[in-house]
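forwarding from the other thread:

> can someone predict this with fe (iii) ion?

sure thing
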Amino acid sequence: MAEIGRSIVKMDVDSLINLLNKALADEWLAYYQYWIGAKVVKGPMKDAVISELDLHATEELGHAQLLVTRIVQLGGTPLLTPEDWFKMTNCGYDAPTDEYVEEVLNQNIKGEQCAIKTYSHLLDLTREGDPVTYDIILRILADEVEHEEDLVALKEDLDFMLMKRR
Ligand code: FE
Ligand code: FE
Ligand code: MG
């Protein structure tokens, strides 16, 4: 363990590690929700939606990577078993049991909105006490904001295609 690296953290390291593990659980569930959603989704604009879902899946996995790297740097143990994903998650998991594009988009938008709230809270908690984690969380949060926007934009395109006007 990097002792000096850990010693500069001016907040409770164990509770920080716990919060990072909770975020890690979210990222794995988000990864799978996108990945399996891309496999089953049906309806208009399916190809554009599949591309975006696949890209987001890859990016969620990248977030998991960033979180694990930080957990290990802090001397923590990353979640070692998938059972922990459901025990630790903040945002849960929505199975795409209704494969219609609009429903899959809605589920993932809800997930992103939860992720944005979670990371925004983590950002507040680390701002003073751990600038290194803060920087990682800021990068992830920027991706989640982009994810929400991408999905909302796809839904708007879908609405125009189906001639729904708001
Ligand atoms: Fe993510
Ligand atoms: Fe995301
Ligand atoms: Mg995107």
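The helical segments are 3-7, 13-40, 46-73, 83-88, 101-126, 131-161. thats all i got for now
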